[in-house]
Write a structure and sequence with these properties.
By secondary structure, the protein is mostly helical. The chain has a single domain, classed as MFS general substrate transporter like domains (Growth Hormone, Chain: A), CATH 1.20.1250. It is built from 21 helices and no strands. Helix 3 runs parallel beside helix 6, helix 5 packs antiparallel against helix 6 and helix 16 packs antiparallel against helix 19. The longest helix is centred in the C-terminal third of the chain and has 34 residues. The chain is globular and about 55 Å long.
Length: about 475
Amino acid sequence: MPEASKFHRFLIPLIIACALFMENLDSTVVATSPPAIARSMGENPLRLNLAITSYLLALGIFIPLSGWMADRFGARTVFCSAIVVFTFGSICCSMVNNLPEFVAARILQGMGGAMMVPVGRLVILRTIPKNELVNAMAWLTVPALLGPMMGPPLGGFIATYFSWRWIFLINIPIGVLGVVLAFRFIKNVEGPRASRFDAYGFVIVSIGVAATMFGFENIGRGILPNEVVATMLVGGTGMLVLYYRHARVTAVPIIDLSLLKVATYRASIAGGFLFRMGLGALPFLTPLMLQLGFGLTPFASGMMTFASAVGAITMKLTAGPIIRAFGYRRVLIANTVICSVFMAAYGFFEPSTSHLVIVLTLLVGGFFRSLQFTSINTIAYADIDNEQMSRATTLASVGQQLSLSFGVGIGAMALHFTLAMSGHEALQASDFSPAYFVIAGTSLLSLFFFVPLTASAGDAVRGRGIEGEAAPLKDVPPRAAD
């Protein structure tokens, strides 16, 4: 690992965070603008969902390729190329005139976005000493929460007072700045020699991830027939099972499942998967509750949910000291309970609830959720050596995308079931409570993976272990060379 100055250790995470913020913001801004886009194209707004799901499909297909690409061409090269592709895709989105063109442009954006998240994280892991990862990764947590919270009010504002095309054009200066700063301040650190490309594994895992994500994203939305959704879920699950069997007998699979033998990594991936399932439903449920249940305008709803982002920024200043003081195991266990309680608390909101109470609850909840993200994201790499970082970030990114899609599906299913049981023709405020209780319980299940951790788990990145590189990984047997 090359030595990075103190200034660079602060600047590099900010550069990566800006790129990730651009992607997260774009995804949620677009979700608020289908009516305006549909009117200009003469399309049914429901058909615009194809543009959103096509982006998610592109993520599912190309994320598994990110680790191998970084090892083959260098992390900085791939990261900057991803920004260029994403920005060019944004320009194409601003110029489209019909739905097929829009879908194609969103797929291009998804190709760039699929590389930005895992490779951007890999850049940090290969340039920042492990004992400083908590502070570095905290900067990546902020855009992950800022984007979904800023997106709705910003998208609504642009679509209302300007042309919807500016939603995509605002990515241009961010993308240009990101590429310039990355080439100026980030070294093109290459990992171990890239292994032979696992083409068969790439095909089946990409189809499996994309089909499963697409299926869960459309559960309970009434856009696709239930038979189609079920076919996507069953087919996608079948492909993932097929890939599992393939990975067990392949020397260097495109996604290395053997990394799950490492206790800290397994806790981060499996426990984080369950926690994010609950969290992934919040950006879907909360705006619906505030707008349909409480009668707020989209802009007022977005401004209110922005309180969570403020809490996330506050966390940036305290995550490191909290983790160093109490250790990963205590923080993960206690904070899982706290976050789940706050998620359940949203289920007690009523139209008569004071807006101040709602904002304060969202604010404090955003702080603790951001702390949980930082803890999960950093403990994952505590016992992973540099040679396996690219494969570790790839698997982590696949898990994150799947868990967020699963969360939206669970939230939609809970709403659909409650609506059917209540006999209401349209969603009412009381229909949202069971959904919040379900996602809170889902997040609480992550304790099964956090409780078994040892008290010293994650010390290498907590600042209590060896500075810089961690000891070579011992839990995972070496794979045969290709």
